[in-house]
Amino acid sequence: MKTSTTRSIRAGTIDIPVHEFNTVIVGTGAASLNCADRLHQLGRTDIAIVTEQIGGGTSFNTGSDKQTYYKLSVFGTEPDSPYEMAHSLYDGGAMHGDIALTESVGSVHGFFHLASIGVRFPYNQYGGFVGYKTDHDPRQRATSAGPWTSKQMVECLLNEVQRREIPIFEHHDCVALVVDGERVIGLLAIDAQQLEAENFGLTLFKAENVVFGVGGPGGLYKTSVYPECHLGAIGLALEAGAKAVNLTESQYGLSSIKFRWNVSGTYQQVVPRYISTDQDGKDEREFLNPYFPTMGKLATDVFLKGYQWPFDPRKIENLGSSIVDVLVYIETAVKKRRVYMDFRHNPRGGDGLDPFRFEDLEPEAYRYLENSNALFGTPIERLAHMNRMAIDLYRKNGIDLSTEPLEIAVCAQHNNGGLAGDIWWESNIAHLFPVGEVNGSHGVYRPGGSALNSGQVGSLRAAQKIAHVYGESTVEFETFADAAGSTAERMTQIIRQLLQPDTSDSVDAVRYRDEFQQRMTESGSHIRESGAVAQALAEAEAQIGAFARVRARTRAELRTALSARHLAIAHAAYLQAIETYLQQGGGSRGSYLVMDAEGDRVHPSLDEQWRYKPENPALREVVLETARVADGRFESAFIPRRPLPDEEFWFETTWNQYLRGEIYRSHDEQD
Known about the structure:
Strand content: 15-25%
Number of domains: 2
Radius of gyration: 25 Å
Number of helices: 19
Structural class: alpha/beta
CATH architecture of the largest domain: 3-Layer(bba) Sandwich
Largest sheet: 8 strands, mixed
Helix content: 25-40%
């Protein structure tokens, strides 16, 4: 195990220590930890993990009533194959076919590895891992270890990493990638425990490879279900020249906001009562009632939000379940009221609707509750019967669903887009491997739980490429010192600027961050309008230029200020991608509505402004790439998506290609 620092470099007037490893892995989420574990399995032990906080990421802190892991079917009589699963991923649109096939093939590797190290996926008396259907899933490929599936994954993978004695540099915030030409050669971090030192805690890591597992863009939105401790760091890679793909495609859905958690699954299937109040908790209303013809239709829509949880514009027409999301948004964002799910009472009716009765439910909802022996009582009683853990989860976080309503909003939840990578999860910046949610492998519509699978497959693929191709040292220290010195001097200048005395127009980092978070929630979330996005992009670019006004009043505030800086860069990239999509005629798809005065009505009882543009299906056949250009702004362009591979594989030929290492070549080299 290699942990000592033997060298340093001079950056201006300060000395910065340098740690040297073959591979540095950023983050301690499920993807990063898996990559470290797999690299060690493959004999590459000259590795280290750099992280702000063990257990501080989305993998450890999020879930749902039954958090899903998606993989190839491994039990049952229904036929399945890697190509069938690849079609389920690819057919969602705007996803490269070779990546879809890779995620499908690798799903079995990833799943059984997790099961073998202790993740408690349930199996029957024959050892079969029985599956169930999830959203956008034509088979029964889904499985779950309960509300905390990804947390179990992190815990078990962390045990493996610690058992292997892989060094972890905790309390280290990555603040810049060190790039030489078209490849990464290391990174610059701040050691939060050394902020008061002369060098501000700056620490360099020289590495042949950087695995970038920094999670999704949790810090971009004001209304968000991402854990508050998780901000994301995609802006660091974008600033360094990494390409992104499909930044337009994020998921949004109903979530609690006091304790950030998705209210999907059983939380909706027990049909809670939806109410709104004024900001003081008064003037209680059952605000959904006026928009539905019958209580049966209203209650069925609420039920369907259980497994139609992400907002989906295809489920608006004819009072589909996503009308609930729109009405919650109008109540909170437009009318400035507060919305709650009340599990203490059944929906009460009013505004022409009868009170809730089971026999008024549509057949799909009625049969589900009947098969669950849950045609009785109040929502909290049904929830206790069907999923006691769902109640316990909130109670552990200070909310008793049996005595108080649960405040909710439509929140940003997951980014289907992210940094671009090839079938080995390698960026256009060579030796940089974005893994987990920061990698934009998903298309428009992805099966529920496929993100957890993608993180495990991608991190395994990165480990394989590194172990078999990039295991030797090729970067001279002098080369690293030149590039790292320039990077460190640039960041030191930014830090010194942040620590300058206040001026009349100074702002603190939290206020600076609040500005772009509000902008993203208003213009770059699930309700989008072309003029508003264009204005937001202009404001975003101006805000990046105004970072010179930000002040950190203490050194402890430097971390917040530097994270706000790269998040501001990222939010400009997201808005520019959205603007490009809208300019090219893109309509409502995935998990967002594109507002259009000439479009379809959202609901006949809503104002005329609530019209939306239907999807342009042709744009499913392309992916949108975004990159930073010379002036620091971003440009986006559509490129055709690669189809599903259709070549035939003869065993002896494959064997020889494997032995010669030809399988690790890039697309360009193969062509």
